[in-house]
Design goal:
The protein has 2 domains: about 5-115 and about 270-280, Aldehyde Oxidoreductase, domain 3 (Alpha-Beta Complex); about 115-270, Aldolase class I (TIM Barrel, Alpha-Beta Barrel). Helices cover about 40% and strands about 20% of the residues. It has 10 helices and 12 strands. The chain is elongated and about 75 Å long. It starts with a helix and ends with a strand. The relative contact order is 0.16.
């Protein structure tokens, strides 16, 4: 998932416009045409994400940029990831926007990577996925950060797959009816996922032809009971099972043995930014 540069540049330009207003009045302290050198440096270990976006932002403002670290790389504390040369007033004006992009995306990538490492170290191949719980306007950036951290993006947009949730069921009526309507209305090329709240609904969903069944807010014991029920009916291998809701780093290994996918809203809606700073010095 990589947008063409011009489109990405336009999105980042809007971030700048939101922050700058009519211009950064504090930079009037700096003599006009002062040139500075800058380094973006990590202050803690993590996975870097957002290098491409920050490079595009800087180059759009006529900075010379040297990329020292690639997106998706694991970095140690005090690692320089970019070197910059250009106008001091401009760099001070865009500093917070570029750091916001880099620290948020790197934080999401780091959290994702840490969860995956925990699952893999325990010997499980379960996919770790994000959800659509992202800040408005940041879906592309948040989802790309998940991908760079090694995670699954799940749905990028509402037209990626059918995802029947509790409110759809409340209106349509029941699991079988909802899946049948989806099969009739949507192209064969789109998978159908349904969110269920009981083991019996999960069984009904698989029998009705769902491709993916999401066990929403199930306890680990309830997940195991559901898997056992599907196995008894010879249906476990006919469906992907996703667990979601109430799962975090503390209990993820209680779910990983039984399911194919674990999706966590916390990856994006509660991500802790990676500590990264921009350090400058006057060139002349």
């Amino acid at each position: 998932m990589f947008l063409p540069q011009k489109i990405l540049e336009e999105r980042i330009r809007r971030f700048l416009e939101e922050d700058l207003g009519q211009g950064d009045i504090t930079t009037l302290l700096i003599p006009d045409k002062t040139i500075v050198e800058g380094e973006i440096i990590t202050k803690e270990e993590g996975i870097i994400a957002g290098i491409e976006e920050v490079k595009i932002l800087l180059e759009s403002q006529d900075f010379q940029v040297e990329t020292l670290i690639l997106d998706g790389s694991k970095v140690k504390k005090e690692t320089a990831v970019l070197r910059i040369i250009g106008d001091a007033r401009t760099l001070l004006s865009i500093e917070r926007t570029l750091l916001n992009i880099l620290t948020r995306m790197s934080g999401i990538a780091t959290t994702t990577h840490r969860l995956i490492e925990k699952v893999r170290s325990a010997g499980f191949k379960t996919r770790v996925a994000s959800t659509r719980k992202v800040a408005p306007g940041l879906l592309y950036f948040d989802k790309k950060a998940v991908m760079l951290g090694g995670g699954d993006t799940h749905r990028l947009h509402l037209d990626d797959l059918v995802l029947i949730k509790d409110n759809h069921l409340a209106i349509v009526g029941d699991v079988t009816k909802a899946i049948k309507k989806a099969q009739e209305a949507v192209s064969f090329s789109k998978k159908i996922e349904i969110e269920v709240s009981t083991s019996e609904e999960a069984l009904e969903a698989v029998k009705s032809g769902a491709d993916i069944v999401m066990l929403d807010n199930f306890s680990p014991n309830e997940v195991e009971e559901t898997i056992l029920l599907l196995r008894k009916n010879g249906l476990r291998d006919k469906v992907l099972i996703e667990a979601s809701g109430g799962i975090d780093e503390r209990n993820i290994l209680e779910y990983a043995p039984a399911v194919d996918i674990i999706s966590l809203g916390k990856i994006t809606d509660s991500a802790e930014a990676l500590d990264i700073s921009l350090e400058m010095k006057s060139k002349r």
